[in-house]
Amino acid sequence: MAHILFVSDNEDFAADLKAQVLRFAPDFSFVETAPDLLLVDENLQRCDELRRQYPSIPLIFLSDENKENDMLNIYVKKPFSLMSFLDVLRAANNNLDNSVDGYLCFNGYELRPNLREIADIKSGSVVKLTEKEVSILKYLYKNQNGYVSKNDLQRNVWKYSEDVTTHTIETHIYRLRQKVEQADGRRLIVTDNGGYKLQQD
What we know:
Blueprint: E1 2-8, H1 11-24, E2 28-30, E3 37-41, H2 44-53, E4 59-63, E5 74-77, H3 82-99, E6 104-106, E7 109-112, E8 117-120, E9 126-128, H4 131-142, H5 150-156, H6 166-180, E10 189-192, E11 195-198
Parallel strand pairs: 1-2, 1-3, 3-4, 4-5
Antiparallel strand pairs: 6-7, 7-8, 8-9, 10-11
């Protein structure tokens, strides 16, 4: 399921569009944190704020005027049909899925999702990862400008599996750090107030 952060000053329009999306596209949901897609209605200032907060997440901008701006990944002119809009959402989500399957670089590491491994760029050493460890790192990469809570990981990586507790998540993070972090003190994942994020370069 893909999670959408929707920003609009028009409450009636926002409520109607959300209801239609949830009715005809149950593979999407709307969230306030840890989104997969950004959706902004007629507010370029909020686009700028969200782009700084979520630099690697697709941003879809809705407007009844023609807008040309480098921060916009996708522009949708109003009015639009629901089916064409859903096509845009699915295409943006598919493109994101494809992009995070390529090599991802951060803090001297190179994550190779399809190979289930992470390489230390400086030393050349390679560590094999489990599928869950890859999913954790990919999700943290998508949200690297902010801390991701254990609840966000439970919802998006473990899909709210009933047998997953906060201890399960803590254990996975601990083992991942033990496998990857180097003796030179370079960190892979940092913690703050119970949340996790990738260490910045």
